[in-house]
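Handoff note, outgoing to incoming analyst
You'll be picking up this chain. Sequence as last confirmed:
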Amino acid sequence: MSRIVVGLDIGTSCIRAVIGEITPEKGVEIIGVAKRPSQGLRNGVIVNIDAAVSVIRDTIADAELMAGVEVSSVYTAIGGAQVEGLNSQGQVGVDQSGRRRPLAIDENTKNRVIEAAKQMPLSEDKKLLHVIPQEYIIDGQAGYENPLGYMGVRLEVKVHLVSASVTTYTHIEQCVVRSGYMLEGVMLKTLAASYAAVHEDEMGLGSILIDLGGGTTDVMVYSKGATVFTASIPVGGNLVTNDIAIVKQISNATAEKIKLDYGCCWINGNEEKEEVVIPGVGGRAPELTNRYELCQIIQPRMEEIFTMVRKEIVHKSNLRELMGNIILIGGGAQMPGVVELAQSVWGTENVRIGEVADFGGADASYRSADFATAVGLVVANKDASAADSRHRRSKESKKDSSHDSLWKRFKKTFF
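Most recent structure output, in case you need it:
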C-alpha cells in the first residue's frame, strides 16, 4: 500500500513543493515537483499572509498536476532568525526507588532523561521544535549512542534544543491551513535538508551544512554523528541582488534576473570574454558589461556571508576542527564559483554542493541543491520513526579504525 507525503519549503525567494510516494517496494519516489517565486515573505519571515497563501496554493497545485494526485496535508520547515538552538543536559537515576541499584536502562528511563534535558527555561514567545540527542552517559562513561539494555545507576544525556518563534510558527500554520491543507508537522530547515543532502559518514566525521537562502543563511554543525550547533545569519542572496541593482542603477527584479543568468562569485580569468547586456531604464541606453565586472560586485558580498558564518561557528560553538565536509545547499549554492569561494574562505578543499539523491520520478529537477529542504521533509517523514531515529547517525565510520586513520592523514581544519 502506498502513502503520499508532501514537503513544502516556504523560502524568501521561492516556494517549493515536492510530492513523494512511499511504497514498501520502492521506498521514496518523487512524483511531483514545483517551484514558484515567493510573495509575502521578507528575510524568511511571512509578512503578508494573503500573498503567501496564494503562492503556496498555486505551487502545491502545480506539484499535484505533475503527480496526478490530490493531497490533503503537508510537512513544512522553519528557519531564519526566528529559530534558536542551544545545548542542554539532563540526568536521572535509573532506579526510581532511590536505592541506587544498577539496573538495565529501559525505554522509560530513556524518556525520563530526555524530559530532564528539556527543562530549559524558554521565553513565552518561543515554541520547542526539536530535542536532538547528542550522546548518552552511563555512570560517568560517555559515548553511548543508545543506552537501552546497558546496566547503570545514573543516566545522563546531552541534547541540542531547537526552538522557534510562536508568532512565526503560527503564521506558517495559518498560511498552510488557509491554502486548504492540513499541517502535519514543522521541522527545522537545515535538519530537514540533512535527510536529503548530508551523508552518514559526513556526520560521523564532523561537517557543516550551509543553506544559502535569499533572506538568511542557515547553518547546522555536526560532530561525532550528532548536531552540536545551529544558527542563522540574517543575510542572504537578496543582498547580492541589491548590490547589483545599486551599482548598475537598475531595478531589483532586473538585477535578480542578471544574477541568476550571469552571476558568478569566483574569478577564473574567462569572465572578461563573456558579455552581459544591462537593460536601460526610462529610455536610457542599455549598458554592455561582462561577467568579470559582475563577479567583482558579487564576490565581496558572498565572501562576507561565508566569513560571517565562519565567525559565528568559531565564536559560539567552540569547535576548531572537523574532518568531514562543508555542504552547500539553497538557491545560493547554484551560483558558479561558490565552491571555490567557500574553499578560499574556509581554507579547505572539503567543500561540495549538497545535491539531492536520486529518488526516481520523471522530473529530476528536485535533485538540485535548492530542493534539499523540500525533499528532506518527504524523506524525514516517510515513516513514523524516521524523524526520531535519524537525529543520531550511524557510527560505522568511527568504528572502522582504518577509515578513521585515513581521514586523519588527510585531515583539513576549517578554522
